[in-house]
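User: quick one
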Amino acid sequence: MEQTEVGNKQIILKNYTDQIPKETDLELRHGNKIKLKVPKGSGAFLVKNLYLSCDPYMRGRMRDFHDSYLPPFTPGSVIEGFGVSRVVDSDNPNFKPGDLIAGVTGWEEYSLIYRTQQLRKIQHQDDIPLSFHVGLLGMPGFTAYAGFYEVCSPQKGETVLVSAASGAVGQLVGQLAKLHGCYVVGSAGSSQKVDLLKNKLGFDEAFNYKEEPNLDAALKRYFPKGIDIFFDNVGGDMLDAALLNMRIHGRIAICGMVSQTSLSNPQGIHNMYALITKRITMKGFLQSDYLHLFPRFVEDVSCYYKQGKIVYIEDMNQALESAPAAFVGLFSGKNVGKQVICVAPE
Amino acid sequence: MEQTEVGNKQIILKNYTDQIPKETDLELRHGNKIKLKVPKGSGAFLVKNLYLSCDPYMRGRMRDFHDSYLPPFTPGSVIEGFGVSRVVDSDNPNFKPGDLIAGVTGWEEYSLIYRTQQLRKIQHQDDIPLSFHVGLLGMPGFTAYAGFYEVCSPQKGETVLVSAASGAVGQLVGQLAKLHGCYVVGSAGSSQKVDLLKNKLGFDEAFNYKEEPNLDAALKRYFPKGIDIFFDNVGGDMLDAALLNMRIHGRIAICGMVSQTSLSNPQGIHNMYALITKRITMKGFLQSDYLHLFPRFVEDVSCYYKQGKIVYIEDMNQALESAPAAFVGLFSGKNVGKQVICVAPE
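Assistant: Done. Structure below.
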């Protein structure tokens, strides 16, 4: 019997860039028609991608730099990222048709998957949206969890600044910090986001950094006694201003630097001397170093969510065609909350 | 009976500066003649200063900035710093004439001391020079000890870069790292210092940063597999180059930034993104946070010294008149080893 062939739209890297990604650095391609069958003996399985995650770290894979923790994408080929997918056919006994999985997949409608070490099976639960497995319960959520508890050494009553605070990571950091008994202030780039931070996400205060002519003065206003913990997703001017406002023995978790326009010519940070006078610990981290905590994270955060103790804001785009614009929007703060692409209805 | 009066030469801060200190920022003054007697009921004691320590941190007290961990000096008044002194007269039952003390004193021939919390009594030992109590066994030595063991988390077999490696702190860091089983490379600013590092202080390698047109290339040459620990006394370009060459989970102890020409307009550090990709911990510190370890430090380092396992290089200037030049020489690397002023022969 002839097998059905289907189209497979894909997002392709057109060319390397170390500047802020533009839509034209990516391209939608109508890939070859594929059969929805996995070759026998391949050990692979075929998935239908339901949700794809737009994450700032992916920018690092768009440049011609081979010495980082992840290899670059290949120009002319489909890019990859975190996603939620359903198994369509399988030659791998551990993954059966119908299984839902979360993990690294292709930015395309269907992906043939050989490597399973970055995948996990997930259960569809009525009270948790499936797309949360690339957000609240996925890499960004885990980044917030590991970064806050393992890197920031938080104590009840401490003061916490979160930059890009309504983003995929920041919104959870702030809520975990509140649950921990901290005073939490978020920085974001629009009045809409500031409103969400204060009125939906439970931050004590929030401000629009674009409306602050002097970030140092803004931080002094919100932290008259200084900052114990800075969870930084943006780098640049905000990091420099925070250094001036840290308290003695403060901690800075360096999670991202989404403010940087050029990865090859990054902005200088000037107030490093504060590290000494205030005895600050500044630590860069990747969630992948803490994967032993992932099961506990899923349990804790699912529980908080189901109890209504935390919420999670998603910015959902429809269809793979919208993926390039959604992705590049991360770097101008166009997204409100975690940016996800719905590739196929569940 | 009329008491003897003596002259009391003093070093005065002439004016605040946040640039590299110049000799003319300090001034020798012939202070009022003083009696070598302490007022009864004052609880104070009078010391004759024998050795004074020139330390880069003192620069921070020469600027009109009141929000640091130490208050600024007062223009027109005598400056203070670490010294070794002998008690001449005392109204304090804990300090008797003839006692030797190390700690904070005035940059002058005689100081009347009221505050004793930063002082400790020392014993004259034939096999340890008295001046070592402001160097190897004083604040700089303790900075090396606390910084290396408590901030750098060293492991046997790791690679260590030390900047300003022949200085008061660096020379001990390198030797402790060697005793710990590390591979140690020092950076210094002259061929004489490089020679001392390699042939007297036991560093595995050393280089003259002034002769390296490309510090990144120099570090790649000495650390083909990267740097586990960077003990940084200089900041600026060396810190930026080291960031590019750190290994995953590397540690950077930020001890000083003697390279900076302006404290109010410091140089930017550009390669901060490496903190994330290599998961680097960068920690500024002050020895004063670790004073509970001071007794163990004195015991350990005295023992190493007496056993011939470590050496210590001093640059000794004679007479208080030479103090301004000796101090400002720190910032051009004129000193070879720990800079001390001998104010009075023992």
